Amino acid sequence: MNLKEFERRVLAGEITDFEPYFTKTYDKDQREQRYVLAKNGIETDRVTLMDGYNTIVDIINDGLLTERYKEWKRYPRAGVRQALVDNSYFWDYFINDEDPYIRQSIIEKDLRLGLQRLDNDEDRQIVQTRLLRKTNDELELDILKAYLEAEKKYGDADKNLRYHALQLKYEALTTIPSTIEKTMTPAQLYSSNSPLWTHDYKAITIETLLPHLKDKPKTEENFNEALAIIFGPNIYMDKYGRTYVK
Fold this sequence. Notes:
The structure is a single chain. By secondary structure, the protein is mainly alpha-helical. Helices cover 54% and strands 2% of the residues. A hairpin with a 5-residue loop joins strand 1 (235-237) and strand 2 (243-245). The chain is elongated, with a radius of gyration of 27 Å.
């Protein structure tokens, strides 16, 4: 009897004695039959006790027995809670879960929820990493500002290169360029001490550039040399002196 027929007979009430399927713990056929029972709400807890918490994980991933999810969100095994998160359940609840990987998976999916965890060093670093890779269109200024304020309050902002990169990015996105600044190249903006030189770069690129600019005069030449080190042959300059990445 294949599994499809087994399930049909169980649901039709033709099989009511389930004891024969609980006699062998490691038998592949019995494990598959037990899962059919469990996913249909029959002896689910007994199957889980015998075959492990992955029974529940599989049920969640299959989108079944949703009426039990509120109960399972307090399940002691992190794998069950992670399955609920992966299937978009209870993020507001799990953002404060004791397991850092569960919190991380939520923050990576919903950065705004990460604002609740900015006082935690590990979680703040995850927020930071996500912000570093965002484009101008993807960045939300209130989230970026909240991170910067939290890093200054709870972290070691002065020694944090990523903080400095994101601070420059925030300043660039909140600074209104003057008429002349609108015509200037990134190198010219850098040499004039304007944060606007960072406007067109992701913060992760700014982070990479900063060590090559440290302790050097703020000149266009030094800026372009730093770009060349980072991007190599992928960098070129147009007739107006603007530098681009191919």
